[in-house]
Task: inverse folding
């Protein structure tokens, strides 16, 4: 059920008031967005080409350490030189070129309902909340190791906001055993959300069972499931130049099943990558090309999303830093390389702040604008992320969602018909008058403008009379209201029962280990 979003700022909704004939009814589709901003460059075209060439040279001459024997064999059969003794793979540029030629430029991912489908291509704009954190935090319960309850609640908050388009691996539910965790996370995503679900690449047994649960819950045949993507995974290489066993196996498993791999090297400048933006992005590019090549050798045409997660570190502590100038520049460079090879791509915002404070807001928004100006297809960690990925904050998710909704309003643009220009309003209002009661204003009153979730525009006296509550305190009310409403998508009870039966049977049999 696509229920009204009580806390989502809306575009023009229309109303009972009369409006001029050329006054457009402004409608904003929060669910399928296009990036309205021209892409910025940080390097010249010849420097980007040089970085691509350096990445190809690194793959051909320096190689990549591939720990999974099956993956090395796939590379060998594809023409790569393999040094089994040292687990090294040397990939010729002609092999990479062929892989890039077969990787699709546009990918339609099927969600639970067609209006939730996600289009991955250059120019699309997709947001995800923070993901992969071991901890959750909110003002009422404090910072804590992630639990199953936290995971389910964060799925519901993700479902609530139309501007969040996919369900990521929000937090680790650490009170659920690892051999059973994939059952728990899949059941939560399928019954609490109709958005595109995420599946961890933690070994073929868990991936296979997750595919089965999703296939059957969606009512798909094997052929239909494999024909189009219905889920995705995130693959992180081990920088520098290493592809470990579960990640390599995940690339093969998802490619063979026709499901999306978002390939994201995690290269921190001065730590796992060269300290310069150009050097770190070149390494990231090389690792992404190696992983893309593996998927295309496993199944030509497999859906891949190029990715990067490159920022700098605090050289005094070694801790990751986000929302910095280097983070911004790295996003711009990654966007140039993504456009150079023509693939949809994933970037990231995020914050290293410990609390939902001004540092958190500044870092997340600066990182977000780096992604927007870079032309990112998908922006992960765009809401809720704290401590460089160690925590997802309920209050920060709410505050960041408001910023994302503002971005969506910018995506809608602004019409410039005569009613928008407002010459009639200029005629109507006398010099030194006001426009509060002008016909143009009243035609749009509470129907045109952005309705904020958290902002309080009262003067100081009124604000203090109301109790002088800050944004985080008001955000607590918002997330509690959303969870209390407990609005869920329409459920097919027979499929829910079948999913429950499957999970109970597999749990009784011992589950599936998180290994190949």
Result:
């Amino acid at each position: 059920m696509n229920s009204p979003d009580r806390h989502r700022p809306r575009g023009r909704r229309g109303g009972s008031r009369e409006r001029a004939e050329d006054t457009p009814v402004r409608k904003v589709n929060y669910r399928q967005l296009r990036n309205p901003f021209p892409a910025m460059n940080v390097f010249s075209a010849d420097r980007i080409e040089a970085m691509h060439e350096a990445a190809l040279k690194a793959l051909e001459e320096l190689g990549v350490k591939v720990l999974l024997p099956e993956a090395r064999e796939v590379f060998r059969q594809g023409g790569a030189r393999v040094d089994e003794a040292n687990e090294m793979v040397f990939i010729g540029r002609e092999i990479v070129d062929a892989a890039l030629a077969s990787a699709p430029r546009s990918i339609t991912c099927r969600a639970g309902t067609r209006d939730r489908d996600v289009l991955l291509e250059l120019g699309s704009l997709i947001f995800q909340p923070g993901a992969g954190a071991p901890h959750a935090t909110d003002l009422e319960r404090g910072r804590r190791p992630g639990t199953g309850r936290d995971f389910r609640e964060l799925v519901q908050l993700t479902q609530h906001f139309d501007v969040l388009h996919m369900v990521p691996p929000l937090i680790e539910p650490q009170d659920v055993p690892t051999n059973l965790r994939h059952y728990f996370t899949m059941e939560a995503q399928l019954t609490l959300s109709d958005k595109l679900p995420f599946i961890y690449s933690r070994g073929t047994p868990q991936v296979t069972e997750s595919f089965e649960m999703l296939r059957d819950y969606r009512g798909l045949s094997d052929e239909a499931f494999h024909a189009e993507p219905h889920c995705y995974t995130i693959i992180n290489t081990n920088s520098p130049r290493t592809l470990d066993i579960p990640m390599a196996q995940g690339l093969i498993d998802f490619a063979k099943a026709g499901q999306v791999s978002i390939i994201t090297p995690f290269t921190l400048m001065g730590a796992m990558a060269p300290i310069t933006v150009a050097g770190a992005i070149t390494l990231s590019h090389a690792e992404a090309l190696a992983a893309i090549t593996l998927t295309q050798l496993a199944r030509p045409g497999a859906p891949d999303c190029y990715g990067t997660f490159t920022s700098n570190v605090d050289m005094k502590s070694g801790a990751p830093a986000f929302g910095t100038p280097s983070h911004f520049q790295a996003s711009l460079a990654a966007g140039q390389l993504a456009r150079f090879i023509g693939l949809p791509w994933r970037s990231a915002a995020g914050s290293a702040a410990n609390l939902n404070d001004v540092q958190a807001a500044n870092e997340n928004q600066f990182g977000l604008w780096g992604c927007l100006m870079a032309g990112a297809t998908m922006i992960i960690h765009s809401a809720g992320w704290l401590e460089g990925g160690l925590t997802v904050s309920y209050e920060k998710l709410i505050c960041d969602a408001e910023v994302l909704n503002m971005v969506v309003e910018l995506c809608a643009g602004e019409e410039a018909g005569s009613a928008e220009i407002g010459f009639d309003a200029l005629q109507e209002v006398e010099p030194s008058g006001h426009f509060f009661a002008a016909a143009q204003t009243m035609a749009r009153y509470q129907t045109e403008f952005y309705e904020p979730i958290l902002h309080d525009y009262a003067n100081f006296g009124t604000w203090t009379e109301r109790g002088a509550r800050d944004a985080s305190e008001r955000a607590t009310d918002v997330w509690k209201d959303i969870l209390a409403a407990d609005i869920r998508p329409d459920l097919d009870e027979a499929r829910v029962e079948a999913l429950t039966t499957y999970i109970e049977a597999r749990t009784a049999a011992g589950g599936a280990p998180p290994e190949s």
